[in-house]
Amino acid sequence: MIEISGFTALYIFMLSAFTGYEVISRVPVILHTPMMSGSNFIHGIVLVGAIVVMGGAESGLEQAIGFIAVALAAGNAVGGYVATVRMLEMFNPKDKKGEA
Amino acid sequence: MDIFIQVVYFLVAVLFILGLKKMSSPVTATGGIVWAGIGMVAASLVAFFEPGVFEYTSNVVLIVIAIVVGSGVAYITAKKVQMTDMPQMIAIYNGMGGGAAAAIAAVELVKMSSGHNAGGAHELSTTAQVLAVIGALIGAVSFSGSAIAFAKLQGIMKKTFRLPMHMVLNLGLFALTLVAGAIIAFDSNPSIQLVLIFFVMALAFGVLFTTPIGGADMPVVISLFNAFTGLAVAFEGFVLGNAAMIIAGTVVGSAGTLLTQLMAKAMNRPISNILFASFGSDGGDAAEEDIEGSMKEIQGVDAAIMMAYAEKVIIVPGYGMAVAQAQHKVSELTKLLEARGVKVMFAIHPVAGRMPGHMNVLLAEAGIDYDKILDLDEVNPEFPTADVALVIGANDVVNPVARSNPDSPIYGMPILDADMAKNCIVIKRGKGSGFSGIENHLFYADNTRMLYGDGQKAVGELISGIKEL
Description:
B: 6 strands
């Protein structure tokens, strides 16, 4: 783990916020739902945090909560991914023929 | 090893941002999600090599079991769900992420209260502790709120539920939660009971916050919770010193906020109004008196003739089409009409259905080209020259009172001008009013004919009617 000091974090925060705003501001309306699902998938990165926290769990209670954290995070990531891919396939006529 | 981990996280952050960028165009979108997916797998694998994770083998075994359980359930549900039910699934997966972020904070706080943290891998600074608590609050609200949103859209919870003095009660609860949070955040050895109370209150607040909001406003709420979860993840990322989590969480947080604003703007209502005015459950009283005319019924055969001999037909789909799974029939109807030389286009209101773009996804599923699908601004000038506007299961988004009656709760909302078409055919299940409970004046207009029935059945009648000609 690297130490991230308060101000570095603040800069990361600010730049990421602008990035997110810029990236999504050019999305056509037809992609809003897949986009929401896609960004939903991306915060599935919480899985990384859940794994780290669960790995360091020392009491039974910590393990129990950690277990919940990992399971929920994995659900977020996998569910978000599958849902997004399924929606985006609808926009791709070639994939569709393959499926049918 | 540490450098290796950091390099991977860095690349993951790049993949996520590029992936999101690619997702913003229909042509590259599928590639975008794959890039982000590769990033996610890499990040998850590398997380096992973070210092301390392999300290206890039992924990690693539990992690693997939890991943298998969580992803297994999510995989199966996401594969099986109907396209029409996608919005509530997004809500529930998003809620899971919020819950995970809250649980991460819970583990950290439990560690502190039991003193395990002392001399451990990461003693929390006050800043980190404050952010952990804020992230926990936001994550917990997103978790329980998304669960309610899911229940509402899934039809498990049909009514909006409101306690006496709901607003006051909710604000009080929120204030208490903040107080508890503040005590925990500035205590280096917080009591475990207080931590528990804090989480219970935060979860309860999420529930009370969401229950009074009508189903029609759910897309805005889901989008807001999506942004919430992003922020919660970013805060917990700071607590764990994980830059990938901070970047990904913040990007989602700001993107989700923008999306929420866009949606609220499409409804022409400030976000605060959507969240706190409890519109959608009791907005009907104002406009009911002064309706002129009556609803005039039409048979499927007559409606079919009207459309078959039209030059230009605009189809306005709404949530009713999604519920009836009528999109494939609509696609068939479109092909039939086009074979007869009728120009067909689709008018999509920004908040049609339960999500922006929900209708587009369904129509795309049914094989309709997306260049035939037009936005509000593009399509409204087309209505006055259209021979038939076919409204399938849409209601509030074509209600002309939004233009004419300043007393109506939806006054000022941009609508699709279906009433401007020469003829308007409305497919509707029954005579009741729409999701918002507001009477629709379009249904009573002189040029409107009502075709009663389930969306799929009614469009089927149109198809067989046209085939018989």
